[in-house]
Specification:
86 residues, alpha+beta, two-stranded antiparallel ribbon
C-alpha cells in the first residue's frame, strides 16, 4: 500500500547539532554522511537530536528538490487580498 505521496530522494538526518538533509542511504548513528549543504556530518541519533534547529541551506536545497517553494516565497490571499512574497 502506498501513502499517496511521492517520496523524495533526501532524508532529514541529525548531526553536527542541526537537522540536515542528505541523499545518503546509510544514516545509522555514527555514520559519516555528506549533506545537501555540502557539510560532512556524523549522524547523531541521540535523544535530543531531533529538537535541534534545521540547517537553513539544507532546508532551501530540500525545498528545491521537492519543487516546493519556501514559506513566504509566493503571494498568498488573506481575507480576499493578495499579499506579496518576501
Amino acid at each position: 500500500m502506498t501513502s499517496g505521496h511521492e517520496q523524495h530522494p533526501f532524508k532529514w538526518t541529525p548531526g553536527a547539532e542541526k537537522r540536515h538533509a542528505t541523499l545518503a542511504e546509510n544514516r545509522d548513528h555514527g555514520t559519516e554522511v555528506e549533506t545537501l549543504c555540502g557539510t560532512t556530518i556524523v549522524v547523531d541519533r541521540g535523544e535530543l537530536a531531533w529538537f535541534w534547529f534545521t540547517c537553513e541551506p539544507c532546508n532551501v536545497a530540500a525545498h528545491e528538490i521537492a519543487g516546493v517553494p519556501m514559506p513566504g516565497d509566493r503571494p498568498v490571499t488573506v481575507e480576499g487580498e493578495t499579499v506579496g512574497a518576501r
